[in-house]
């Protein structure tokens, strides 16, 4: 036997509130004017309690033997579009089923339409669960059964629709069903909402004296926050008399549903996976031009940034209380003679340090390919890391084919690119402000490159020399005189630097890459940390001496690094 006390309260409240004829009769007796004036507030109340029922149903799905999956649990905190949730378990089928009812209720803009949708809700959702509870439920209480159900319903109604601390009913803060209402809509229908709430309290077995007290408190409220302040008075008036007569902690409702039960089967069957177009599939993807990995190592866009993210995913996953893989989407871009790839990494606030509670995907555009071409070594390294992490079950990769221009256009239209460098002159690198670095001359900790014109070995020597000294900054897009010229292709520079850091440095060096715009020009900054152990480039150790680079002798290596 499993306790479902709150679920039975939410179900009974929904059963009572969906009786439109009774509400209209009450309005006619208590108010002058057109009954239609009260329909909008009534509908807000119905949807609030439907949301509450859905939330309790989701919490108690295990008691009702509703099968779910890890993908469902993940989506529970991150999904932005219910329609794009893969219906691969009973719980997601049920969610979509309920969401469709909620959508239809919201669209019911006249009395006839609303009455039809309420009748459908009662027959297709409320009735099946009624039959389930009647057949397999058992109540433990000294209260009369009818009074017990009313009592449990009021315990649900009070916090769900009377509590409005956020400026709207608390029920709209929870649950997966889309909120849909704007604050303006809620505010415009506040008075009719409080009237519907008074009617519902009257339906839940209040005596006349209690009802008058509650009505006075509710109708004195002028807005949602004042309604919230009536919470204590309403609770004392409605619930306290019952709790004075019975130990509320000992009252419970339990169900014991056998595997052969079929009462709610029809709720769990439908909702096939929708045919989702490319833009629909991208609705939950966000573009980060730059971001932080979970261990606070900075990464940039392009292959260089994605490689750093991949190298950090193992430690990130180790911090999670799950063995399930982190989700990655390979976005395949047709490009003769094969494909280019962008990648999206799922995160839910934990994977990327500067995203807060935002849920979605961090996208790295065109960071790999399936044929040899520009940036081939970095692209190959991406695929090697993905294959390694997949074999270790750290990640799971799924594919979606989408033209690259469609992806870029979509991301631009969504305006989800986050530019953290609007005040780039105030950024600090190597504990120095960027504007002061550029205004100064090259030195033992600063190197300027107008473009990436040198060989990769020569640039590698510069990086190794700075690391073996005290660290420093290498800036591409600034000439020797400190004039900002900009680079022609930031991504190409990043890819080359990434190749140097991981292929030519021994051991590999975790320098930070910053592709930014400074004085209107695109530049790339390589912030190089001081090495804890000697770093070699092409099997040779180098050192910074003023603005020059020279080889380190064995004696110098021993003296500096022990």
What does this structure look like?
The chain contains 21 helices and 20 strands. With 562 residues, the chain is α+β, with helices and mostly antiparallel strands. The protein has 3 domains: 2-255, no CATH class; 280-414, no CATH class; 424-561, 2-Layer Sandwich (Methyltransferase, Cobalt-precorrin-4 Transmethylase, Domain 2), CATH 3.30.950. Residues 292-299, 349-359 and 415-423 have low confidence and may be disordered.
List the helices and strands and how they pair.
Layout (H helix, E strand, L loop, with lengths): L1 E2 L1 H13 L2 H11 L8 H21 L10 H9 L11 H18 L3 H26 E4 L4 H18 L20 H6 L1 H14 L4 H12 L4 H6 L1 H8 L1 H6 L6 E4 L22 H4 L4 E2 L2 E3 L5 E3 L1 H17 L7 E10 L2 E10 L12 E10 L6 H16 L3 E7 L2 H11 L13 E2 L2 E2 H6 L6 E4 L6 H13 L3 E5 L13 H15 E2 L5 E7 L2 E8 L7 E2 L2 E6 L2 E4 L2 H8 L1
Parallel strand pairs: 4-9, 7-10, 13-14
Antiparallel strand pairs: 1-3, 2-3, 5-6, 7-8, 8-9, 11-12, 14-17, 15-18, 16-17, 18-19, 19-20
Helix pairs in contact: 1-3, 1-6, 1-7, 3-5, 3-7, 3-9, 5-6, 7-12, 9-10, 10-12, 15-16, 15-20, 19-20
């Amino acid at each position: 036997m499993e306790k479902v006390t709150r679920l039975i309260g939410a179900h009974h409240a929904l059963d009572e509130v969906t009786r439109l004829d009774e509400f209209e009769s009450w309005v006619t007796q208590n108010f002058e004017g057109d009954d239609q004036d009260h329909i909008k507030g009534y509908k807000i109340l119905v949807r609030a309690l439907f949301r509450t029922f859905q939330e309790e149903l989701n919490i108690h799905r295990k008691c009702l033997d509703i099968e779910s999956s890890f993908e469902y649990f993940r989506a529970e905190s991150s999904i932005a579009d219910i329609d794009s949730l893969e219906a691969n378990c009973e719980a997601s089928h049920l969610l979509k089923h309920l969401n469709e009812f909620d959508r239809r209720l919201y669209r019911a803009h006249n009395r006839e339409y609303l009455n039809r949708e309420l009748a459908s809700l009662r027959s297709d959702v409320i009735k099946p669960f009624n039959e389930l509870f009647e057949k397999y439920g058992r109540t433990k209480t000294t209260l009369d059964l009818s009074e017990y159900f009313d009592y449990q319903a009021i315990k649900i109604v009070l916090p769900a629709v009377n509590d409005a601390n956020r400026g709207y009913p608390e029920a709209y803060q929870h649950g997966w069903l889309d909120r849909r209402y704007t604050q303006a809509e809620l505010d415009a229908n506040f008075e009719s909402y409080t009237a519907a709430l008074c009617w519902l309290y009257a339906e839940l077995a209040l005596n006349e004296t209690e009802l008058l007290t509650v009505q006075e408190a509710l109708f004195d409220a002028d807005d949602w926050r004042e309604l919230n302040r009536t919470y204590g008075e309403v609770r004392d008036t409605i619930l306290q008399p019952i709790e004075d007569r019975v130990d509320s902690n000992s009252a419970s409702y339990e169900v014991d549903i056998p595997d052969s039960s079929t009462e709610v089967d029809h709720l769990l069957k439908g909702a096939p996976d929708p045919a989702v177009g490319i833009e629909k599939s991208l609705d939950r993807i966000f573009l980060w031009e730059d971001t932080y990995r979970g261990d606070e190592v900075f990464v940039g866009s392009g292959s260089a940034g994605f490689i750093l993210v991949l190298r950090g995913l193992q430690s990130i996953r180790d911090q999670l209380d799950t063995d399930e893989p982190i989700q990655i989407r390979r976005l395949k871009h047709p490009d003769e003679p094969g494909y280019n790839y962008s990648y999206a990494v799922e995160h839910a606030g934990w994977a990327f340090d500067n995203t807060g509670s935002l849920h979605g995907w961090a996208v790295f555009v065109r960071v790999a390919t399936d044929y040899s071409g520009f940036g081939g070594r970095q692209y190959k390294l991406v695929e090697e890391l993905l294959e390694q992490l997949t074999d270790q079950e750290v990640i799971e990769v799924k594919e979606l084919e989408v033209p690259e221009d469609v992806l870029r256009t979509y991301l631009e239209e969504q305006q989800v690119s986050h530019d953290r460098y609007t005040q780039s002159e105030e950024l600090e690198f190597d504990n120095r402000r960027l504007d002061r670095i550029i205004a100064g001359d090259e030195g033992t900790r600063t190197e300027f490159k107008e473009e990436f014109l040198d060989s990769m070995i020569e640039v590698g020597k510069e990086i190794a020399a700075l690391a073996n000294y005290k660290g420093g900054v290498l800036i591409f897009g600034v000439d020797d005189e400190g004039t900002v010229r900009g680079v022609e292709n930031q991504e190409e520079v990043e890819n080359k630097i990434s190749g140097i850091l991981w292929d030519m440095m021994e051991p590999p060096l975790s320098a930070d890459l910053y592709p930014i715009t400074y004085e209107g020009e695109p530049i790339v900054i390589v912030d190089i940390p001081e090495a804890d152990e000697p770093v070699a480039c092409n099997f040779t150790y180098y050192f910074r001496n003023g603005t020059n680079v020279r080889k380190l002798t064995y004696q110098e290596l021993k003296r500096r690094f022990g």
